[in-house]
Each structure stands twice: as C-alpha cells, then as structure tokens.
Amino acid sequence: MVPRRYHSIYNITIYQDVIIKQHEGSSIIDLRMNITRHFSDAPTLGHNRVMGASADTIWIGERARSLGFDLCGVVRAESFPELAQFEQWLGRGYTGEMKYLEDPRRRNPLLVREDLRSVIVCGLNYNTAHAYSVTAAARPQEGDPRGWISRYAWGSDYHEVMWEKLNALNDLVQERFPQGVHSRAYADTGPVAERVFAKHAGLGWLGKNTLLLNEALGSWFFLGVILSSLDLAPTLAAAEVPPVDLCGNCRQCLDACPTGALVEPYVMDARRCISYLTIELRGSIPHEHREAIGWQVYGCDICQDVCPFNREAPKTGNRRFQPRQVNSSESLLEPSLVWLAGLNEEEFRAIFRGSAVKRTKWRGLVRNACIALGNAKLSRENAAHRSAVAVLERLANSRELVIAASAQWALSRIL
After folding, report:
1. Catalytic residue chosen out of the listed positions 188, 255, 301, 305
2. I need a labelling partner for 103 at 20 to 30 A (CA). Which of 143, 286, 322, 337 fits?
C-alpha cells in the first residue's frame, strides 16, 4: 500500500494509480522520487530557489535509499502543535523517572541549534520473520520457562546501526555542501521529538499507541534525524498536510495493553508501560503491575503486535536485526528465564555488549527475569520448576535489594 495521493511543490495533485503503473515494484523512497521527478517536468513557475532546494531534497532521499534506509523525508525545524501538547503530557507526570524528557529543547528545536533550519528524518525497518509476541505467548511452553525480549533489541544495538547510516548520509551532505554547513545526527539519543518531525516530513501519522505508523511499513522501524543548518525544501509542499490518521475507530492497541498504559487514544502513561517498567525503572516493579508483565523481560511489543497495519508488515533483510545467538542453546529470541536470572554481572556485560539490552543493566534484567519466573506456570513435578526455585532461592538472599525482593515475590508465586 502507498499513500492515496501526493502533491508536488507546484501544488498539483496526482492520484497514485497513474504513477504506480509506470513504476511497479518501487520502494517508498523510489515512489516518492518518481512522483517528484514527474512533477519536475511541469512548467517552471520562476521559483528557482525552491526548485534548487527541491533537487537537493530529492538527492538526499536517493542517497538515503542507497544507504539502506526505507524512509526519508525533510521538514523545516518548526514548533509543531504536538510539541506544545508535550508540555501538557509532562504536567500529568507521565514521564516517571525519565527526567531527561523534561529537557526544554524537546519542545523547541531551535534550542538544540541556533542555526537549525531543516531536519532530515530517516526510517529503517527492523521487522523480521519471527512470530509476534502475542502469538508466541499463546503457544504451549514445554521445558524451561522462556522470556520475551522486545523485537527491536534482538540483534545489534540499533543506535549503532542508525548512527553508522546517518553519519554516512551526513558525510555525503557535507561533501555536497562544503561551505558553512553545520549538521548533527541523532539516533534516539538527543533532545529531539523524532516522531513529530517524521509526521510532518510525510512519513506517517501518530497512532493511538503514540508510535509513528506508516501505511506501507506499519510501525516496525527505527527513526533517526540529521539536524542541519541547510535551508532545504520540505518533502511536503506548503499546500500539503501530513498523512491522514488511518486509526479510525480501531482501539486494539488500547484494549490489548496489559497494564492500561494507553490511558486514552494517543496518550500513554509511561509509568504503567511495560517497556518503561522493564527498562527505564531502576527500582522495584510496583506490585500492581508484576502479574500483568507476564513473560516480558525487556520491553514490550504488544501494542504493535495487534496493530492492523503490522499484520503484513514487510520484513527486513538486514542480518544485524536478526536474533543474536549467544551459544548453542540460547539466543535473544525467547531466552530461558532461568539462564537470564542466573547471569552474573561479568556474563551480562559480555553477552549484551553491542546490544540495546544493556540499557536495563544487569540488576534490571535479573529483576525482570525473576518477575517473569513468578508469572511462569510451572508444574512442581518437572525439572524446570526445581531449576527455577534453585536460582530464585539464591537470588532471594542477594545484596541487591531490588533483586532479592523480586526473587522473594517470585518464590511466593511458584512454591
């Protein structure tokens, strides 16, 4: 699927079937470039500066595609309405311990760089062919109880993958504009609202689960940005609006969230989100959320799993996003909970070097594994139950109080 129609910088409308028939098999970036080239043949309106900037925007999109990005768009650095609404979200206290989100630069991009003019937004698909978590969780489990690591963290650290590609694109931009251009790449690392810029760059709409949704890719993609002093023509022309919100009356993500973190459409209370609880929270997981966490040990994919736009989402060929194989018996796809809970700090650092999972730190991952073991439905007659009890009894005496408390809770559930 592709957006129903595009507009050119000449404010001319064309419907998709006219161009798609000429460019079957094109990627999203291909299609956008083909449409823009189609309009570039239109009569000149005398806007030479805009036309020149548009050529630069097209060139950037082509370079992004050559580097492996699936999406690319350009937007001016403006204070969009969503940035003002962010202030209200902060006022509700939904950030929890994530105080870095209170950085005022997130609401005003010009505070990041005074010379900021344009934002180049790139998206990279990370979806693989493995089953979604809601499907995997429904399968009967035999043997050792298993945990779920969020899909995005199975392979190499996405920050590193995105940085490599963004910095390569930035280098190409610097070569094309060698005089006085200042730019910097961020891959989910800076005080930048990537999703808002992506929306206004025409890459998708903000869904009810608060994620960016693209009609063709769904939501299984990373976003990164390059903040630039270049005055580039936006991907969307002045008369265009961002892609229409296609969520409609659907509320599958809200209904599926185990902890009720989506308190209303388009609004998340991060303090209730399983991703926050298993990654960002440093203390004990609140009792009222422990059972709802289920087998999740790092992040959560449920609100994306159930999204209709992800039912047939394309798969990536990037091997770096495939599940990491740790040894002959363990990988990051449905790892053994007993194995995770039994890791020491040195083993944790070695196994998760170059992995996004390291963000939760050793204490956090062992804590999460204990909670998941407490949620595992283990028969007392099998060896898996005995192994789980053994590791939990050891951890119940840990000097790390958060781990000890989590292990004690788990034991109270399975003994």
Report:
1. 188
2. 286
